[in-house]
Amino acid sequence: MSRVIYSFYIDIPEDELDIFDKNVLRKDQVPTNINTKKQFKDNYFKLLANKKWYAESIGIDFLMFEYDLRYQKFALEIKRHYPFITTYNVVNFYKLKLLYELSKTYDEILYLDFDVVCLTKDNFFDTWNLDKGIAVFDNTYKVNTMETITKETQTIRSPTAKYYNAQAMLMEKNLSPKNKVINTGIIGANKEHIDKLKYFDNFNSDINTMKNLTTNYDVFPKKIVDFFGYDNETLFSVKLNEHNVPVQWLDNQWHYFFDTQGFIPKETKFVHAINKDFDCCWRRYYA
Q: What pairs with residue 6 in β-bridges?
């Protein structure tokens, strides 16, 4: 059986960054995208070496993708058809495009966002039987109830926005609105389930549906709809439901969502540094 681990890093030009969090910034606070860009640059070689180390530890191929002709071709094509989609969203659709390209060669695939730090030599593929379903993390617990939502409690990338956006898309397809908020920072999948997901099969129709929903206030109030967008994780959730793709939920050991806690538990195997506090990750890694 052929297996691969892959990651990617696209250094988005600063003038193409969408400062999505401007509505929740405190005075003199650095926008999230600007801080992310800096932290990735400062930690680039450590992050790359860490993933290579893990892949070598378990005897699996590792592939790294960056800002090359392959990405540029994909980005130009998306921008040509959908000029309203931000570069950030293009980048995140690209990582799933790579998933499909690699599934033509490999039977099982593990994707790691570039801000994931591996803290273990345990073999992901031995722990998670990918024949049982796509392995991803469930972020639904971070969704706010509709009554508590304000412009200050969410952004276009918050789990809350993704949850209701997926609901709206599922209802548009005459499907049950019940869904989970998927985090695609770590994905384990085999070729069978990647094919069954059919993520890009009706991409044009799906993007147009997302676009139409950004101004449709018939079902959801304006405070919800104003945060609808073109998020890869929203569409991922919709596709899982639309095509009845089996899923298994990663636990906190294999996807530790490192955000505001300030610490990393000893049992953590993969830490997803949402907060970009890589110094804390490296202290834990070298401990």
A: 63, 111
